[in-house]
Design brief:
Length: 124
């Protein structure tokens, strides 16, 4: 369908505007330097291993990367509690030390015993 009357002039005006914009030199945008280390943002994490007899808990710690969330002792204790580990048996100092080493060295810390159960004793 062919434009009629005033519509034809509008189409020509729009075309002229588009052409003039396309012909203009656009200033180059500045390139922002990437201040990150290039690592993906990954939260710190742990792997929890409960022994088959449920008397020992080993935890492996993995550091955060980039802007990921750092784990803290409370996070780890909560995760252990969710897995059924008695909070009174958790060695918070072992967790603190492992987390510190993990973050300070930006490397994993594996198989840290963070809880040990008390074996049952025979009654008299």
């Amino acid at each position: 369908m062919k434009p009629v009357g005033n519509e034809e002039q509008k189409d020509d005006s729009v075309k002229e505007i588009i052409e003039s914009v396309m012909e203009q030199d656009c200033p180059e945008l500045p390139v922002l330097e990437d201040s990150s280390s290039g690592e993906p943002d990954t939260n710190g994490s742990v792997e929890i291993h409960i022994s088959p007899d449920k008397m020992s808990v080993l935890v492996s710690f993995f550091p955060h990367l980039g802007n990921g969330k750092r784990l803290n002792t409370g996070d780890v204790v909560s995760l252990l509690s969710e897995r059924g580990v008695d909070r009174s048996l958790v060695n918070r100092e072992a967790i603190d030390n492992a987390l510190w080493t993990c973050e300070e060295d930006s490397s994993s810390v594996k198989d840290v015993e963070v809880a040990r159960g008390i074996p049952p004793r025979r009654g008299r």
